[in-house]
Amino acid sequence: MNTSTHPPLDTHLPDTPLPEIQDGYSAARIFQSGRGYTYDDLILLPGHINFSVDDVLLETQLTRDLRIKMPLLSSPMDTVTESEMAIGMALLGGVGVIHYNNSIDAQQGEVRKVKRYKNGFITDPLVLSPSHRLSDIDTIKQQFGFSGIPITENGRMGSKLLGIVTNRDIDFVQDRSLTLAQIMTTDLVMAHEPCTLEEANQILKESKKGKLPIVNKNGELVALISRNDLKKNRDFPFASKDANKQLLAGAAIGTRPEDKERLEALVEAGVDLVILDSSQGDSIYQIEMLRFIKERYPSLQVVAGNIVTTAQAQHLIEAGADALRVGMGVGSICTTQEVTAVGRAQATAVYNTAKYAKQFGIPVIADGGISSIGHIVKGLSVGASAVMMGSMLAGTEEAPGDYFYKDGIRLKKYRGMGSIEAMASGSAKRYFSEGERVRVAQGVSGTVIDRGPLHRFIPYLVQGMKHGFQDLGCASIQQLHMALYGNQLAFELRSPAAQVEGGVHNLYSYEKTMV
Q: Do both 271 and 383 map to the same domain?
């Protein structure tokens, strides 16, 4: 006899399913309110976890034709991205976009450094002749960071290989005017074509040499293998590479007629994607440049922007853009919205442009407003395929500039491309104000804290992103976007008090350690 006062449990399921229990609101409902929302205004509600953090895949479609393993780009700012940053970003699965606040030759040289930092067969190595001098090796080492140089009869690829010059040959030589014929190593370990990459790598391992020349039946140099490249393959399995196993390199250009000359130099250097760098991308100047590029170099991937509306997206997609860069006046050092009263809150801008561009298979890159891992996850959650970072990376060792101390804190300079300081160096053309007598700043100069080396900081960001995806119940960016557009991803708006509650609070002091 059941003496319980509670009714027995009904173990039979009802004939009709129960209504779905759903907290929060879909992005479609959130963003139709007519208000502009930032990343901080939003919070994502958790989903169901049925996979581990290590199962999360962050591979993404960067442009129409380029895929990368990590959805991260470094901004084309002169205090953020030159070759060292671009190399580090590409090795870690992202892409670096080299700024153009410099001469054509300087930007071309930075791109070349990235493209020469490659894995596998090096088919266009720097080659010298026996009549070159040791000082020529010094110049190459200073410019490109390496000194293992093959020596051929005429100093070109396809010529008979005579020797090689390495650090061991030159380190303790005082007379830098000696010819390479006097110091080069002629007792060479070589591989002969046809030779697979695996076979060449095995010879290199067994020989314990730094470089392995590949020659044809006539003894003429056709390729080179580097021991450092073997280490790169081992240590950086997610590296962003092109079909020739070279690291991907991005570069920014403007929309002036002279930028066509800059474009030609970048293409010659092997650039993989070009960003048309304008503060307001919906202009006849950008559309004309975009059409010129796609007609002249149809396979070159072009990222157009910056934009924040669907109308702007429509114009640039119709002109041939391979991806869109979204964000206007939302960077930490940008004052565009304050000065011009034009722009849009970033979460709203990304959601609306990405939803429109999705119809045409055009990815969106969220640029600006990123100051934490949570912001990266939110940017991807509202439709971006990748995010671009400036201040987050400006404090890393790979960013241009030197560290300095202030009040005991290690800092680096960081400036907006719309700051008076940057505009004086050449970036005024980004704001259509190159010839103005009175310049109006749309950015500031400041400092950022030391974030250490990129190879420690990026994995920290990636691991945090994976935890965010796991909490959402999405194991990939593709799944995240399916949940977004299927109205399964749940958002809520946060009050100012909720935003305070969601961060560190009510402590006398604390230290936030990132890596």
A: yes
Same domain, 396 and 473: yes
**Closest alpha carbon to 427 in 83, 107, 87:** 107
DSSP run (H or E) holding 405: strand 404-406
What is the span of the domain harbouring residue 464?
A: 53-117+239-501
The alpha-helical segments, DSSP class H, found in 322-383 are 336-340, 346-358, 373-381
Q: Kind and range of the H or E element at 310? A: helix 310-318
Rounded Cα gap, residues 222 and 195, in angstroms? 11
In 241-318, beta strands by DSSP E: 250-253, 273-276, 301-307
Measured in whole angstroms, how far is the alpha carbon of residue 194 from the centre of its chain?
Answer: 36
Beta strands in 128-285 (DSSP E): 149-152, 161-165, 191-192, 211-215, 221-226, 250-253, 273-276
Residues identified as active-site: 334, 430
Residue where one domain finishes, among candidates 235, 253, 285: 235
Residue range 377-420, pLDDT digits in tens: 999 999 999 999 999 999 999 999 888 888 888 888 886 655 45
Residues 224-279 pLDDT 10s: 887 766 666 667 889 999 988 889 999 999 999 999 999 999 999 999 999 999 98
**pLDDT band for position 129 (cuts 50, 70, 90):** very high
pTM passes above 0.70: yes
* Number of independent structural domains in the chain: 2
How remote is the C-alpha of 459 from its chain's centroid?
14
**C-alpha distance from residue 273 to each of 84, 127, 322, 402 (Å):** 17, 27, 9, 28
DSSP-H helix ranges across 68-218:
83-91, 104-116, 134-144, 167-170, 197-207
Residue 509 DSSP one-character state: -
pLDDT in tens, 414-431: 866 554 564 555 544 544
What was the pLDDT predicted at 7? 41
The reply to whether 186 and 285 lie within a common domain is no
Domain of 180, CATH number, reads 3.10.580.10
Look at residue 332 and tell me if it is in a domain.
yes
Of 211, 235, 259, the residue at which a domain comes to its end is 235
**430-433-435 Cα angle (round to 5):** 125
Please enumerate in sequence order all residues whose Cβ is within 8 A of that of 114, keeping only pairs 6 or more positions apart, or say none.
83, 86, 87, 90, 96, 98, 247, 249
The stretches of 31-103 forming alpha helices (DSSP H) are: 83-91
| Whether residue 311 is found in the same domain as residue 334 | yes
Residue 408 buriedness (CB in 10 A; 0-12 / 13-18 / 19+):
exposed
DSSP-assigned letters across all residues of 135-165: HHHHHHHHHHS---EEEESSSSTTSBEEEEE
How far apart, in whole angstroms, are the C-alpha atoms of residue 423 and residue 473?
A: 45
CA angle 464/36/330 to nearest 5° reads: 60
